[in-house]
Design brief:
Length: about 90
Amino acid sequence: MDCPIASLFTPFTLKSITPRNRLVAAPMCQYMANDGLLDKWRQFHSPVLAWGGVGLVIVEATAVSPQGLITPGDAACGATPRCRALPWWR
């Protein structure tokens, strides 16, 4: 008998990325940004999820313009340097 749980640990392709497994960390809106930039907590927390074995980490909602901010603590990616501030950004 095949074990359906085993497929959780196999890679899959989603458009142009292939996570190492099917475990996904959903976005956790913790409102830890300051002027749109993620603070040290978020810069540490998200990579730890990936290092722990999660195949795909969705950081959190990110506004692409100031008008898209829901709260003052939201992340913003309206300018390229903001996105590149994430240590794991490629």
